[in-house]
Backbone:
């Protein structure tokens, strides 16, 4: 093929001779002569025709070779070269050779000469590319198969260590190497770490390599591939005698994000000539290793974002839920203790109101850092919602957990209330957090700035406090104000109170808790005092914009109740009356046991009253339809236990769920009449008053 190319050059542009310059063995990217006799064409770092072509990717003309530094001074005259043209031969996206075209007599090399020469060079490059492809297809080389297997490994695992191990194994097999290894840069310390190796000593993994040390160190020093047939002469290898038997090595760089991030090396215990194809194969596998590292980095980033609270940098709600379940499983298996802490900042709302949300955000970040400073490396902290944090302490019993809680309180200046709970067998993640939350409630209700530990005494103290909460006079005064504002309120609220009190009793709550829920039900619409009158009096359904305004009423209600000492205990129930069991409600998206039980009761009872009450814009549902809707929402919108209690209270057996898809009408399987099981309700309760 080259003879044909040389003949065409003579014919088209009158060239006297041509020479194909191949890539040098010693330095990837440096070109050298085809034979030693052509040493006048060599170059290193200085200016030359080949260097210019490599740098620019374009042909380079030298009309006066005797005075140009494109050829070693004196050699052009010695070899009778008066003018020269250096032309790149490129295929597969890179310059593979440089074509030197020479004339014995000086001539001005025209643009047409350059175009013609480049055209012939491109045709030759296409031919070489075809030959190379045919040769590779014909031989079915071991190297090709190794690269294919290495590429396949990328799709089989997201575990970086596993993928890198496969890649170094394939690199050694492809080049028939005695050892191979991948080194990943430690950008913080300025060195590299041996990460995965093939037939390397056990002590090799984790080895730190400085720039310039060994073959990989040379890559980190220069950013370019490195080949040596005299490995023992490399500086710094005296520090690693376990690998002193190595003689030949090749190492190539791994780049991503425009940074040198790694090196892939193969070594032999004998002297071996490293071919260009070896380097290209190793670069291909290094490219796959780079993809693996980028994928792992991206995957880790996504995982980090998914489990981290964006404001504070600690775990978020979902990640902590997962960690609690994992630690409970480990504690159950190993028999180790496990402690949980819920910490709530006292009067945090006042910070936002008086100093602004930026100050509140900075306070949350400061608290998160302070909490992390009090924990062991394997303890966990999460921002669980708003100004509430959860700590998980594996291996800590109740006493140790309480001590940590005290330290955390002191670390943030005592401006928080804390609930502590210790896991015991039979307690799931929701139960553990509910116990800690009950203790937190006691800490809040008894002066704030203190730590309370979950135990039976906590429940007795809470029951006593709850029985005293909510002055009947204050409750009735507010209820009258609500009724004055909204004519629809009185009748449906009285029914709601009766249902809520009955369900609370069916759930086995103590009398103080029952009355607290009843008072909250009576005042559940207190937030409407802050709503526009035209929305309250509207006959038809609300628009989206009107609904957004009205959906603020639980928050407004909480604020109204919180201002009155006697009613403050009702505020959380009213705020969360629209939270759903699966976390899709509002205003805070709480879920399951995180929702106050009173809020869960009011939501279900309110739904029943709303469904069975005729409104100007829709008729009331039948009893069967109402039961169906409540059952359908159990476990998603409603607490299943609350729904069971409500239906038991009303005297409904569990109905046969109608099959809507089959066209069965909702009324096809009516439940028993509510009057048939009135006796199922608790003492002192009667449906409808």
Residues:
């Amino acid at each position: 093929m080259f003879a044909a190319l040389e003949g065409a050059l003579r014919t088209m542009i009158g060239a006297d001779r041509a020479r194909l310059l191949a890539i040098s063995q010693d330095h990837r990217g440096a070109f050298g002569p085809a034979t030693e006799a052509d040493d006048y064409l060599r170059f290193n770092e200085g200016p030359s025709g080949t260097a210019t072509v490599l740098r620019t990717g374009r042909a380079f003309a030298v009309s006066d070779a005797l005075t140009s530094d494109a050829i070693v001074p004196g050699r052009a005259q010695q070899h009778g070269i008066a003018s020269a043209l250096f032309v790149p031969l490129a295929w597969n996206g890179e310059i593979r050779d440089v074509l030197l075209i020479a004339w014995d007599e000086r001539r001005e090399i025209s643009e047409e000469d350059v175009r013609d020469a480049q055209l012939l060079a491109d045709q030759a490059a296409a031919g070489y590319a075809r030959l190379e492809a045919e040769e590779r297809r014909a031989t079915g080389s071991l190297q090709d198969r190794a690269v294919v297997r290495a590429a396949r490994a990328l799709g089989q695992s997201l575990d970086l260590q596993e993928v890198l191990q496969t890649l170094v194994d394939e690199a050694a097999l492809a080049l028939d190497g005695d050892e191979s290894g991948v080194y990943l840069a430690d950008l913080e310390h300025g060195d590299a770490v041996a990460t995965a190796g093939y037939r390397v000593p056990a002590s090799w993994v984790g080895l730190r390599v400085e720039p310039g040390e060994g073959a990989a160190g040379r890559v980190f020093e220069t950013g370019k591939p490195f080949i040596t047939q005299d490995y023992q002469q490399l500086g710094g290898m005296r520090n690693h005698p376990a690998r002193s038997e190595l003689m030949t090595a090749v190492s190539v760089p791994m780049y991503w994000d425009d940074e040198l991030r790694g090196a892939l090396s193969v070594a032999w215990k004998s002297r071996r000539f490293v071919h260009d194809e070896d380097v290209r194969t190793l670069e291909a596998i290094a490219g796959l290793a780079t993809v693996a590292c980028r994928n792992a980095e991206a995957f880790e980033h996504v995982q980090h974002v998914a489990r981290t609270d964006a404001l504070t940098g600690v775990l978020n709600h979902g990640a902590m839920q997962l960690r609690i379940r994992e630690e409970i499983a480990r504690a159950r298996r190993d028999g180790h203790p496990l402690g949980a802490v819920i910490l709530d900042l006292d009067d945090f709302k006042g910070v936002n109101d008086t100093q602004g949300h930026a100050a509140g955000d900075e306070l949350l970040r400061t608290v998160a850092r302070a909490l992390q400073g009090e924990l062991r490396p394997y303890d966990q902290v999460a921002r669980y919602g708003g100004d509430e944090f959860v700590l998980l302490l594996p291996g800590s019993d109740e006493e140790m957990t309480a001590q940590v809680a005290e330290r955390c309180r002191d670390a943030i200046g005592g401006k928080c209330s804390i609930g502590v709970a210790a896991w015991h067998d039979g307690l799931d993640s929701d139960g553990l957090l509910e116990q800690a939350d009950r203790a937190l409630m006691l800490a809040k209700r008894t002066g704030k700035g203190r730590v309370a530990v979950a135990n039976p005494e906590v429940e007795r103290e809470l029951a006593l406090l709850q029985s005293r909460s909510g002055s009947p006079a204050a409750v009735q005064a507010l209820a009258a104000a609500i009724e004055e504002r909204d004519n629809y309120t009185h009748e449906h609220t009285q029914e709601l109170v009766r249902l809520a009190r009955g369900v609370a009793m069916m759930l086995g709550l103590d009398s103080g808790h029952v009355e607290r829920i009843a008072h909250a039900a009576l005042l559940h619409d207190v937030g409407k005092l802050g709503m526009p009158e035209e929305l309250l009096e509207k006959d038809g359904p609300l628009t989206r914009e009107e609904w957004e305004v009205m959906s603020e009423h639980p928050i407004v209600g909480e604020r109204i109740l919180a201002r009155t000492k006697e009613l403050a205990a009702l505020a959380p129930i009213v705020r969360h009356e629209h939270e759903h069991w699966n976390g899709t409600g509002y205003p805070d998206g709480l879920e399951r046991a995180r929702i106050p039980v009173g809020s869960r009761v009011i939501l279900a009872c309110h739904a029943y009253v709303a469904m069975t009450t005729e409104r100007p814009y829709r008729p009331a549902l039948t009893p069967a339809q109402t039961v169906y809707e409540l059952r359908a929402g159990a476990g998603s919108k409603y607490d299943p236990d609350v729904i069971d209690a409500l239906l038991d209270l009303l005297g409904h057996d569990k109905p046969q769920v109608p099959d809507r898809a089959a066209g069965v009408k909702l009324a096809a399987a009516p439940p028993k009449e509510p009057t048939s099981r009135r006796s199922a309700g608790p003492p002192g309760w009667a449906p409808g008053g």
The chain has four domains: 2-139, 143-304, 317-465, 469-680. Confidence is low (pLDDT under 50) at residues 23-46, 467-471, 653-689. The radius of gyration is 40 Å. The first strand starts at residue 17 and ends at 23.
